[in-house]
Fold this protein.
Amino acid sequence: MTPRISFLSRIVHRLLIALYRHRGWHFEGNPPGVAKCVVTGAPHTSNWDFVFVLGAVEQLGLKPAFIGKHTLFRWPLARFMRDMGGIAVDRGKRANLVDQVVAEFAVRDELALVVAPEGSRGSDGTWRSGFYHIARNAGVPIVPAWVDHLRMRGGIGDPVMPSGDYRADMAKIAAFYRAKRPDCDRFDRLTSSLAE
């Protein structure tokens, strides 16, 4: 049985959903039709990304999860972080982040892990590969999600099951993003890195 989220978490969640609706976001796409997946959110250019993802995932009927450093899951934030979908990971030298998240997929019936593959808003468009290894090792698809803050639009694509051929799988994902956001130069680095 899933524990009831705290009063504070419910209030914050409702405020974020109200903000998403108030700002007039438009979402494209359908639920991915899978209980477990890794959702790649790109480009990661704004602090509003979290609000959009929360609102979009709400529309899809999914419960989003995210990775957070284990030190954030201590009192007084522990319950709030978990209520918001946080998964605590140890990023120490001896800890394997991919294995930790794969283990979390193994014990859950549903998990939509949202990852910003660029890592930070200051990225030049280079993607880290951790999300791919998590999906591959957990045996779950990658669901690409895009956002356009200027037009207040975003959406989700069809699931891509990792085949083990990183370049081929990433070429499919890159093609999806380029088609949705041809104006975004942050995807130039992603596309060019696959051609190298």
About this structure: The first strand starts at residue 26 and ends at 28. The chain has a mean pLDDT of 86. The chain is about 40% helix and 20% strand.
